[in-house]
Write a structure and sequence with these properties.
Blueprint lengths: L10 H22 L3 H4 L3 H6 L8 H28 L5 E8 L4 E2 L3 E14 L2 E6 L4 E7 L9 E9 L10 H6 L3 E10 L7 E3 L3 H25 L4 H10 L7 H9 L10 H17 L4 H18 L4 H19 L6 H14 L3 H4 L1 H23 L9 H23 L1 E2 L3 H8 L3 H15 L3 H26 L6 E2 L4 H20 L1
């Protein structure tokens, strides 16, 4: 007699739906903006089902679903309340530069934390409070550095939304910024006889050393490689397309290859693979080599200033690498959902107001859900230069992010598949050769010059290929404003497609 199969939800299924419910609760609060007290009403039906736990695990499942919705709504309501707090009109006192200034064409974005000064015998101890930061748009010639403390006075203004699709107020709130610092005046020599107190003293010292390492790398790249190839290699190794000339940036954008020079999961995966290869070369087991890769990625993220995009890419990229090394790519959706839920817990606003988070999660999830069934239908065992794998991964990721890209940027790049297929196979070798050239340059400059020659040629060919593809008339198509209904419709289609291809 066949044993009856239990239809009760398993622990793993309950946990997965708890995470999904939490994200759903965040979305509900962002849409309806319920007051904080209203969120507690969600708990009433949750505790009603507790006495029925012993009768069926379905009541346990229902409890954790409701609990997840409550936690998402409650956490998000607290973040929204911070935005509604009335800001002070003027600030006078010490500030702490909490991140490396973001350099633009003719200005800098400087993030300032208000700080409390406590007088002591050896001087004034500065204790920053980075819960409510100020954003200051400084002139390019002004000197601002990470870890600086200065005494300033400025008028504080609330940010304003100027574009219908971009909520600037909530975008800044994700970074704990609630005020714009205007008419800033600095007190000269305010740094004398002051020092950082508490953990900020050690954190700042460590981060400065890491940023110095990044500066040495960038300087050596500029010495060994000509421009704009040096800017392209710096983007590949250190992240960021801002170093590239405007016309080259536009070519990468039109061909859908900007992710190669931005801090994306692709760069992280290549770097992690490089560190794993180094670990195996040093005689480590693959398990130990993986952890070496994790440490290397953590150092890389710190070195480039720990922007949220890099943190997201590191988490998603390392998860995908772990899943592929373990042979569990098809069953790693829970890990990706957990990573996304944790990121949303620390900053709920990223769910709706951070396109980078949306693209990172959708690309990783789409690779997991779509690549595995597609790879079974396509023979990738005899894969010359891994072109089939690259094409499948690119197509899978593109399907996941296409809706968000078209909605936010109102353009579509039909040539991106071909462009990625052409340039991606060489990028791991370029990154490896570039890193070896730079590393060798600190000890054997002449040898580094010879190593850099073929890398310079490869970088030039990559840039030229992207330029030629961007010149094709249909490389980028302007779509226009498609609206939320189209966005919802696209992802309904995507979900149905995933269900069909995985059945």
């Amino acid at each position: 007699m066949r044993k009856a199969v239990s239809k009760n939800p398993s622990d793993s299924k309950i946990f997965l739906w708890f995470l999904i419910s939490f994200v759903f609760g965040v979305a509900l609060e962002l849409i309806f903006a319920w007051p904080l007290w209203a969120c507690y009403l969600i708990l009433l039906p949750a505790f009603v089902v507790v006495p029925f736990w012993k009768k069926s695990r379905k009541f346990v499942f229902l409890f954790f679903v409701l609990l997840g919705v409550f936690l998402g709504a409650w956490k998000t309501a607290g973040e929204l309340e911070k935005i509604s707090v009335k800001n002070i009109q003027e600030y006078k006192g010490f500030v702490y530069v909490s991140a490396m200034p973001e350099e633009k064409d003719d200005y800098q974005k400087v993030y300032l934390c208000p700080a409390k000064a406590v007088k002591k015998k050896e001087g004034a101890a500065i204790y920053p409070d980075c819960q409510r930061k100020f954003l200051y748009f400084a002139r390019s010639e002004e000197l601002w550095e990470f870890g600086q403390t200065k005494k300033i006075s400025c008028k504080l203004e609330k940010p304003e939304n100027k574009y219908p699709k971009f909520d600037y107020i909530k975008f800044l709130a994700m970074k704990d910024v609630y005020s714009i610092c205007q008419n800033l005046e600095k007190e000269e020599d305010s740094e004398k006889k002051t020092y950082l107190g508490g953990c900020y003293k050690y954190k700042t010292a460590v981060m400065k050393k890491i940023f110095q390492t990044k500066g040495y790398f960038e300087e050596k790249i500029r010495e060994l490689f000509a421009f704009p190839e040096s800017a392209y290699l710096a983007g590949l190794l250190l992240g960021g397309e801002d170093r590239l000339p405007d016309d080259v940036q536009e070519n990468f954008r039109q061909t859908g290859t900007t992710h190669t020079v931005a801090v994306s999961g692709f760069n992280i995966t290549v770097l992690a693979g490089f560190f794993m290869w180094m670990g195996v070369l040093l005689g480590l087991w693959r398990q130990k080599a993986f952890w070496l890769a994790v440490v290397g990625i953590a150092f890389f993220v710190l070195m480039i200033g720990s922007p949220s995009s890099a943190v997201r890419a590191a988490i998603m990229g390392v998860l995908l690498l772990w899943a592929s090394k373990k042979g569990r790519l098809a069953s790693s959706m829970r890990a990706i959902t957990l990573a996304a839920a944790l990121m949303i817990w620390f900053s709920p606003l990223i769910l709706f107001y951070d396109a980078g988070f949306q693209l990172s999660f959708l690309a990783a999830a789409s690779i997991v859900l779509v690549y595995e069934p597609l790879s079974r239908k396509v023979d990738i065992k005899n894969d010359f230069l891994e072109w089939k794998s690259i094409l499948l991964v690119t197509a899978s990721a593109q399907l996941g992010v296409l809706g968000i890209l078209v909605y936010n940027f109102e353009t579509f790049s039909p040539i991106s598949f071909l462009a990625n297929l052409i340039i991606l196979p060489a990028i791991p070798l370029i990154m490896l050769g570039g890193f070896l050239a730079v590393f060798t340059g600190f000890f054997l400059p002449y040898l580094a010059g010879f190593i850099a020659l073929p890398i310079q040629l490869a970088l030039s060919l990559e840039i030229k290929a992207v330029e030629k593809l961007a010149q094709i008339s249909w490389s980028s198509i302007e779509i226009g404003d498609v609206g939320l209904w189209w966005l919802a419709g696209y992802y309904i289609f995507f979900i149905l497609f995933v269900c069909w291809i995985r059945r």
